[in-house]
Design brief:
Layout: E1 5-10, E2 13-18, E3 42-44, E4 51-53, E5 59-61, E6 74-77, E7 80-83
Antiparallel strand pairs: 1-2, 3-4, 4-5, 6-7
The structure holds FE2/S2 (inorganic) cluster.
């Protein structure tokens, strides 16, 4: 199974999500490795401008307010991140 995703890091906090907007199912980003709004406070869908909270992926502004990004689960072992595919998609 393939999972395209990204991880936002804030200090020791890692927040990984699948790279799919819950609105149209498109990838969130148009530019490689650019997922955050201008001030780095939200995850931005560049398709239609929805904004998602960093901590839980909840849509805070845009056409899917109340829905959330799908979480990915990762393990960090000796500085290497592994996606737990058995838990992918669960929140
Ligand atoms: S495709 Fe992301 S907000 Fe519409």
């Amino acid at each position: 199974m393939s999972h395209r995703g990204f991880v936002v890091r804030r200090g020791d906090l890692l927040v990984p999500y699948r790279n799919i907007c819950p609105h149209a199912g498109w990838p969130l980003n148009w530019h490689p490795d650019r997922f955050l709004g201008e001030r780095g406070e939200v995850i931005l869908c560049t398709g239609q401008g929805a904004e998602f909270a960093l901590a839980d992926g909840a849509c805070v502004r845009g056409p899917r307010k109340g829905q959330s990004l799908s979480a990915l689960w990762v393990d960090l072992i000796d500085g290497v991140m592994f996606v737990d595919t058995g838990r992918a998609g669960a929140v």
